[in-house]
Design goal:
The complex is a heterodimer of chains A (208) and B (263). Chain A is α/β, with parallel strands linked by helices. Chain A has helices at residues 43-50, 73-77, 94-103, 110-119, 136-150, 166-178, and strands spanning 3-14, 17-28, 32-36, 58-63, 66-67, 80-83, 154-158, 182-186, 198-202. In chain B, helix 4 crosses helix 5, helix 6 (125-156) packs across helix 8 (171-196) and helix 8 (171-196) runs antiparallel to helix 10. Chain B has 2 domains: 7-61, no CATH class; 63-249, no CATH class. Helix content of chain B is 78%, strand content 0%. Chain B starts with 8 loop residues before the first helix and ends in a 14-residue tail after the last helix. The chains are: A alpha/beta (208), B mainly alpha (263). Chains A and B meet through helix 2 and strand 6 of A and helix 7 of B.
Chain lengths: 208, 263
């Protein structure tokens, strides 16, 4: 299988604080990597590095075979679907907000959207509501559905199921696992560990 | 018709006597604004008298270069003061905002002088300094509010901004809702003022013109023209300011630099 995300002896951090030293891992095509670790260890910064928001202090990062240079950033970012930890992202009418995102890539299909709304056990009227009126769990599912419909090669998911109840966590994790996308998920939820072919990476302060 | 009737020193003092009323009210309700009110009134008096003196010399000398430089000095002082009172980082914002502000004010004022009031000496102090000064004074507040709202919102909503940056794939799309909101917040009061103008009050420019001897119809035309000029200058300055400041405020990879705004 092709390597999609490659970290080779990567040091990540800010001017005043190094978070990870000599971090090395590879995520292969269609593989799901679960990053686990205590809160505050900087797991999200690994996702920020993959998205090219942070320049590694040292080491090599390659995404889809390309070096994480400024020149390659637009190409790399077009490959990524990101679901942030804080789901309070969209504004105004939920369906319109989803449509605005998907229409840019001509990927808006109302039928598919409705099917996913059903599958993720969201009430029918969710799409007609303002996004701000939705609960945390509903917002998370809407962002996941948007990511699924965007259909990009890499999924970066930061605590995407934290506000869901246990049955739904299992269902969502299983669904994402079977999508066949190269996925990096940060989660404290045990339900992700039972996803088929998942690989778990434990991180702590100062390394992995 | 002649100019406005002069106000004697005694009459000015009688005018200042009116300040006793708010001072008594503040004192009675223990509102700690007395010192600030008196200091501000004193500053206003000194500053405006000084302005009267320098305008007299500017009108007498009336050199295009001096007038252009004088307007620039007014803009530097105004921008410096406004940024100091805002939550923006002075080192990052002063030069780009000043540059944007200058381009906008000079362009609109010269356009106004040449095409709207149709004067031939467009750099004359009477037109460049006075009209430019009025436009700059009325647009600066909006620019600072807009720029600071724009960066404060992006800093507050870091994850939403990153989501848009990754999902839409370019910075323009990522900042678009923040740009819309910042312009709306800064411009809405001006739009509201335009919509109610002439219903509940006689605006300052009109009052000045009528007292100076102009007919109400001429005064109205000036008021409308100046409102539109201020509105256009504010909008141009906002967009230029955000464009020029964004080059310094964002890192090359798209994140907002640390310490750009105090939040």
């Amino acid at each position: 299988m092709k390597p999609v995300i490659e970290f080779e002896n990567v040091t990540i951090g800010y001017e005043d604080r190094i978070l990870f030293k000599n971090l090395s891992f590879t995520v292969y095509e269609q593989e799901v990597l679960l990053i686990k670790g205590p809160s505050g260890t900087g797991k999200t910064t690994i996702l920020y590095t993959i998205m090219g928001l942070l320049k590694p202090v040292e080491g090599k990062v390659r995404i889809c075979g390309k070096k994480l240079s400024l020149k390659n950033l637009p190409y790399i970012r077009r490959k990524i679907s990101y679901v942030p930890q804080n789901p309070d992202i969209l504004r105004e009418n939920t369906e319109k907000a989803i449509e605005e995102i998907l229409e840019r890539e001509k990927k808006f299909e109302r039928k598919k959207l409705k099917e996913l709304i059903d599958f993720f056990q969201l009430p029918e009227e969710t799409l007609q509501k303002d996004f701000s009126e939705l609960s945390g769990g509903e917002k998370q599912r809407i962002l996941l559905i948007t990511a699924i419909l965007l259909d990009r090669d890499i999924f970066l998911l930061d605590e995407p199921t934290s506000a869901l109840d246990e049955d739904l966590k299992v269902k969502v994790a299983d669904f994402i696992g079977k999508l066949g996308k190269t996925t990096v998920v940060i989660s404290h939820d045990r339900e992700w560990e039972s996803v088929n072919n998942i690989r778990v990476m434990e991180v702590n302060n100062g390394g992995s | 018709m002649g100019g406005a009737k002069d106000i004697s020193i005694l009459s000015m003092m009688l005018c200042f006597l009116l300040l006793i009323i708010p001072v008594i009210i503040y004192s009675y309700i223990k509102l700690p604004l007395i010192k600030e009110t008196l200091l501000s009134a004193a500053r206003m008096t000194i500053q405006l008298f000084l302005m009267g003196i320098y305008l007299k010399y500017l009108f007498q000398y009336d050199s295009a270069i001096v007038n252009i430089l004088w307007l620039l000095i007014m803009m530097i002082v105004a921008t410096f003061q406004a940024i100091r009172r805002s939550n923006l980082n002075r080192k990052v914002f002063l030069v780009p905002i000043l540059l944007s502000y200058s381009i906008s004010i000079y362009t609109i004022t010269l356009y106004f002088n040449r095409f709207v009031i149709d004067v031939t000496r467009i750099f004359s102090a009477k037109y460049l300094v006075v009209i430019g000064g009025m436009i700059l004074g009325n647009s600066l507040r909006g620019i600072i509010i807009s720029v600071s709202t724009f960066y404060k919102d992006i800093a507050h909503e870091k994850e939403r901004y990153i989501y848009r940056l990754i999902t839409f794939g370019n910075k323009f799309e990522a900042v678009l809702p923040y740009l819309r909101n910042s312009i709306q917040i800064a411009i809405s009061p001006t739009i509201a003022t335009m919509a109610t103008m002439g219903i509940v009050s006689i605006p300052g420019t009109m009052t000045g013109q009528i007292l100076g001897g102009a007919s109400p119809m001429v005064a109205i035309k000036y008021q409308i023209a100046l409102m539109i000029a201020v509105f256009a200058a504010t909008n141009i300055s906002i967009v230029l300011s955000i464009y020029t400041t964004s080059r310094r405020a964002f890192e090359k990879r798209g994140l907002l630099r640390k310490g750009i705004v105090k939040i």
